[in-house]
Amino acid sequence: MFDYCVVGGGMVGSAMALGLAKLGFSVALIEPAIPQPFSPEQPPDMRVSAISLTSENLLNELGAWDYIKSMRLCPYKRLSVWDNPSCRTNFDSRSIAQPHLGHIIENRVVQLGLHRSIHTKQNVTFFENLSITGIASNEISEIRLDNGELIQAKMLIAADGAQSVVRDAANIGVQGWQYAQQALGIQIRTHVAQQDITWQQFTPDGPMAFLPLYDGFASLVWYHNPASIKQLKSMSKEKVKQLIVQHFPADLVDFEVLELASFPLTRMHANQYFKGNTLLIGDAAHTINPLAGQGVNLGFKDVSALLAVIKDGLAIYDRTRLLDPQYVPTWLQQYESARRNDNLAMMTAMDCLYATFSTNNLGLKMLRNLGLKLANHAGPIKNNAMKYAMGIQ
Questions:
Q1: What torsion do the CA atoms of 39, 43, 44, 47 make, to the nearest 10 degrees?
Q2: What share of the chain in percent tops pLDDT 90?
Q3: Residue-averaged pLDDT of the chain
């Protein structure tokens, strides 16, 4: 019998399991697809995330950050956003006395760093490369795996992504939609040294972004309609480069195209974050338009909020009493209250940003460029906004 069973050993689920283990709970962690081990010779992965300073602090507290740093990452110190190139908003870590704004890291590297830390914990049992075939929950959850094992846990945490099996088993509904556009990820190798800036230009056809990686590698993100993305993926790398040079801003340095992959864009929000002894975190609870790279950072905020609520409970009750079904709804409600409105606000803000910059309306275009220009000279207001986005305010 485990105190907690976390389903999903990705970035958010692994962080959750680690945090619970550090609090002294017994934890089962189930992950159906363990990532390939890291080797420095490997090319960069397509899936990368902008890890905020707050997320970095969480990963450091959990003992995973040193493992991540020992592999590879890219700190970025500057961020630039614009529509018209003459109306930019520029952010710099020096203006808020921080060494950097965040890091661009391959998802697999973050996940592997967390897994290394998990393997140092005796109170975490890692069920690797195993899938769930059945879930039954009442006061105790019973999770059956495809190798025939049966796991019993007092609490069940869904960290198994947007298509969550655990959420469906708990009959928790969702609301949301798929956006008309998709995102094309383009892995490139630049002909300059590693850069310390990430930038994004908005156009009526969608944003175009640059994310620096290690050793001169980088990732481009090109929002477009599905038909155009399908056409781009069918072209030669040389032709794709020609179109990138034609459409992307002049800030982009010389490069070669290595690989392309497309990703659907969806917004989804669970109708509730818990039901009975089952609770949701990360993409199992919410997915967001990735305009500002907040997806995994919102998931890490879920982890931090849940751990904080549990720590507060442990100051009053011992671990056994805290997991008593009589007390569980109280602290689960505290977790939902702490995270639901914040996640909804961020989702709505990204949709407003997406809608505002996805139009050719002349009046609105003038207003948004004026807004960006004014924001760049807003001083303390701009710095406070940057701190909020980084999660340090």
A1: -100
A2: 67
A3: 88
Kindly write down the DSSP assignment for every residue of 93-131, as one continuous string: GGGGT-S-SEEEEEHHHHHHHHHHHHTT-TTEEEEET--
Question: From CA 78, how far away is CA 62, in angstroms rounded?
Answer: 27
Domains of the chain: 2-73+104-176+267-357 (3.50.50.60)
Residue ranges with strand state E in 192-254 = 197-201, 208-212, 217-224
What is the reported pTM? 0.90
Q: Which two tokens stand for residue 235?
A: 């072209």
At residue 258, what is the residue type? L
DSSP H helices, 126-176, are 165-169
On the question of pLDDT at 347 being above 90, the answer is: no
CA distance 130 to 26: 19
Q: What is the pLDDT of residues 86-117, one digit of tens each?
A: 778 888 888 878 889 999 999 999 999 999 99
